[in-house]
Hints:
heterodimer, A: 115 residues, mainly beta, seven-stranded mixed β-sheet, B: 115 residues, six-stranded mixed β-sheet
Amino acid sequence: EAGVVQSPRYKIIEKKQPVAFWCNPISGHNTLYWYLQNLGQGPELLIRYENEEAVDDSQLPKDRFSAERLKGVDSTLKIQPAELGDSAVYLCASSQGLAGPDTQYFGPGTRLTVL
Amino acid sequence: GENVEQHPSTLSVQEGDSAVIKCTYSDSASNYFPWYKQELGKGPQLIIDIRSNVGEKKDQRIAVTLNKTAKHFSLHITETQPEDSAVYFCAASRESGGSNYKLTFGKGTLLTVNP
């Protein structure tokens, strides 16, 4: 079974430029998460989707970050414009969406460098 | 919100020795505690988890213990091997319930197993 797929794996951009990350969750997983992982830190939730609905986006900086999950499968996370402080690893995870907390499976992440 | 503290931040052991990583949490309503292993350039991978109705859980060389009264839980790895070298993260969350279900991660422990 294929795991969570993310692309690109690495992205280098100049500040003020836009950037987008793509995630394909494990087949059949209803819940999708985007996390931010700064160097030397644990992942921090940005947004959680249940099917197409964003059920928790309280940690998403909405002035520059946006996300969508069309048709309840793939998802994209966008930053516009990027700032130097956005340099980090952006992780996507998915889970079956069972009642209660269920196992989250993480993708390899996209390492963003903003110059 | 939940706050998870993890210690130590780095741990170096000799192959064959045991390793123990400890975490404390602040939200007494948290009742799900997973542990993730993250290798360089990869996303976190679940290695074991425990729910609050269980005090201890074991899977081969890995065990987790939970003390709900003291609000701390620990990861124990016995007979460590070089391939156990990675960053380990603990996390905590409540059971389901909209935004209440949110994994809060510790800052991670870099485990190095020396041959």
